[in-house]
Amino acid sequence: MTSDEVIVAFYLGDRSDSEGRMIEDMWLWDYRRLEYTHDYIQWLFPLKQKSGFNRNAPVLNEQIIQAFNTNEQLKMRLLKSLKLMLGFYGLQCNEAGSADIEITKSDEYPERKTNWINLRNHNYLRLTRILTSLKLLGLGKYALALYKCLEQIYSEESKSIGSETYSYWKKAVA
């Protein structure tokens, strides 16, 4: 199977990732597993660059990007992955209509933020990956909505997040 077939098949639920996990199972993971498992995020939010943390993760090419941008089922499944991670971060997606997408703090945010808002947290890298992947794969409006929410969080937590992390988030949606 070529790399473009692998990630599309994984996203459609037709094959597992390199560790034998199906996407539908990942969507059911609890927050603890999402935090302490480090080789799934590259499958849920693939990039054009090879991962330095997961050598078995797929890499995007133009065919995969085109498939996601033109296939509503792939985009809806990517959105499901996003909503999983939003919950993990204590965020939520409010969709009043296709043009009105807003990502905001959920009621769980005060509790959830303690798991990811602190200096040099690996979740900052995950968020950069998520923003970049969403933009590439046809969910640019969601990437921008997430960025706007992160921008607000940064204004409140800049000492814990740091300007370097914020600049990566900004660059991801530029």
Please explain how this structure is put together.
A two-stranded antiparallel ribbon has the order 1-2. The protein has one domain. Strand 1 (91-97) and strand 2 form a beta hairpin. The protein is mainly α and 174 residues long. The radius of gyration is 15 Å and the shape is globular. Helix 1 (3-11) runs parallel beside helix 5 (62-70), helix 5 crosses helix 6 and helix 8 (122-136) packs parallel to helix 10 (163-173). It starts with a helix and ends with a helix. The chain has helices at 3-11, 23-26, 31-36, 41-44, 62-70, 72-89, 109-112, 122-136, 140-161, 163-173; strands at 91-97, 100-105. The mean pLDDT is 94.
Give the helices and strands, then pairings.
Blueprint (H helix, E strand, L loop, with lengths): L2 H9 L11 H4 L4 H6 L4 H4 L17 H9 L1 H18 L1 E7 L2 E6 L3 H4 L9 H15 L3 H22 L1 H11 L1
Antiparallel strand pairs: 1-2
